[in-house]
Amino acid sequence: MTPSRRPRRWRRCALAVAAAALPAAVATAALSPAAGASVPPPPDGWSLVWSDDFDGPAGAPPSSANWIIDTGHGYPGGPANWGTGEIQRYTADPANLGLDGGGNLRITPVKSASGEWTSARIETQRTNFKPADGRVLRIEGRLQMPNVTGNQALGYWPAFWALGSPYRGNYQNWPAIGEFDIMENVNGINSVWGVLHCGTNPGGPCNESSGIGASRTCPGASCQSAMHTYRFEWDRSVSPNQLRWYVDGQQYHSVSQNQFDSTTWANMTGHAGYFLLLNVAMGGAFPNGVAGHGTPTADTVSGRPMLVDYVAVWQSGGGTTPPPGDTVDARSTIQAESRQAQSGTQLETTTDSGGGQNVSHVGNGDWLRYDDVDFGGTPATQFKARVASGAAAGVSGLVQVRLDSPTGQVLGSFAVGNTGGWQSWRTVPANISGVTGTRTVYVTFSSGQPADFVNLNWFTFSS
User: Fold this and answer.
1) Structural domain of residue 170, as residue ranges?
2) Which of 158, 329, 355, 384 is most solvent-facing, going by the fewest CB within 10 Å?
3) Residue 407 is assigned to a structural domain of this protein
4) Exposed, middle or buried, 169 (CB in 10 Å: 0-12/13-18/19+)?
């Protein structure tokens, strides 16, 4: 990782290493209460597997039928400081963990008069969350990150995640057994990270200790100032299988089975399933790496809770494709790897700012499809894309926008040739014919040569 890249998730279950520094400028979010909401009913064609709405009297612990409360600085026989360098001691104290009486769970880091930080971490009793063959498992939580930003947030590390069941009681088999980070955040930055951990550490197919991840800002209100829904889907209804990450219904990250060798995938998915975790850590490799120094600091404030409205797990009907998800804002940053279908392309880890993956090996006739892109009522008239190219001299091509079909009318395009390398990124704009409403967008690629000519990291539309 270089200083120009935003760090992704650092390993949680093995001894962490120091990260390269990244300055983080964040705005201060206003405090706002979070209203409780019921667990949504299952979408058509789906069934509820498990849920917790966190209803109950203020100060009560979460249901012992659903949750285990972790305490101390690590599992018995496991790595110290939970394997990440985080400094807090987890407790079952109501000051750190309890219902708020309004339908939410509160996990609150607290600094004592002596300077010790305490917080809370819980994990589900169940360890078998896994889709049946031909189905899709959807894990979702509605929560508000600790409402603190800037220097006062240094060291805060809230997370909603899942670990492979063989980890329970072993503590030495990470990351092979798999880890899905559904929501992570550090230092009060208005961003959510979604990450997959797998394989071997360090390095391996999941680039440990960082993992394969992506991040984006929360839609609308900041992650810290409001509730948002964070969702992870494990799709066994398609071949190759897919893993997908969403915030407020907007997909921002995906990983495909064909990115891994069969042993890595089997170790990660062939066991009984996963258990879910919620926690707020303080300090450790991830927040320290982003801050560029140790955290928390003297400026870090105590007592800002993560609020969890509900956690739910659904499964699609046997052999069916999940119903269409929420729309994607055309004016948001649409990650290229979040495509619903493609022809001729591959994925690779990017060194561009933000990390994650880019679409690669793109040549003449290739295309990417993005469903339910919402342009709204004001016509979008410009397309902007983040591209890189290491094509040979004389090799170039067009990046084009079409609607509804890979052979539909071209609304706009721009030409791209060698940019200095396959990871030398630049943002290129193009005018397009005005588009409104919710449409299926195709990004297509045309070239007079058979050679690959471009990589694509993200794109967006504007008026």
Assistant:
1) 46-316
2) 384
3) yes
4) exposed
CA triple 129-134-139, angle to 5 deg? 30
Closest residue by Cα to residue 309 from 77, 90, 38, 94: 38
DSSP string for 23-51: ----PPPPP------PPPPPPTTEEEEEE
Question: Tokens 């050679």 map to which residue?
Answer: 451
Q: How many other β-carbons are positioned within 10 Å of the β-carbon of residue 190?
A: 18
Q: 129 near 311, Cβ under 8 Å?
A: no
Q: Does residue 336 fall inside a structural domain?
A: yes
What are the pLDDT digits (tens) for 334-390? 989 888 888 888 888 889 876 678 999 999 999 999 988 989 889 999 999 999 999
Q: Which amino acid is at 319?
A: G
Amino acid at 38: S
Give the CA distances from residue 22 to residues 2, 11, 28, 225, 253, in Å, rounded to whole numbers and listed in that order: 9, 18, 19, 23, 22
pTM assigned to the model? 0.66
The verdict on whether omega for the bond into residue 209 sits within 30 degrees of 0, i.e. cis, is yes
Q: Which residues pair with 443 in a beta bridge?
A: 368, 401
301 and 193 belong to one structural domain: yes
Q: Give, in order, the Cα–Cα distances in Å from 68 to each of 74, 109, 138, 309.
A: 14, 18, 22, 18
Between the two ends of the chain, the Cα-to-Cα distance in Å is 35
Q: Tens digits of per-residue pLDDT, 362-371?
A: 999 999 999 8
Task: Extract the runs of DSSP E, i.e. beta strands, from 165-285.
Answer: 179-184, 192-197, 212-216, 228-235, 242-247, 250-256, 274-282
Shared-domain flag, residues 153 and 280: yes
- Closest by CA to 93, choosing from 77, 69, 66, is 69
Q: Mention every residue, 6+ apart, whose C-beta is less than 8 A from residue 172.
A: none
Residue 129 β-bridge partners: 274
Peptide bond preceding 33: is omega within 30 degrees of 0, i.e. cis? no
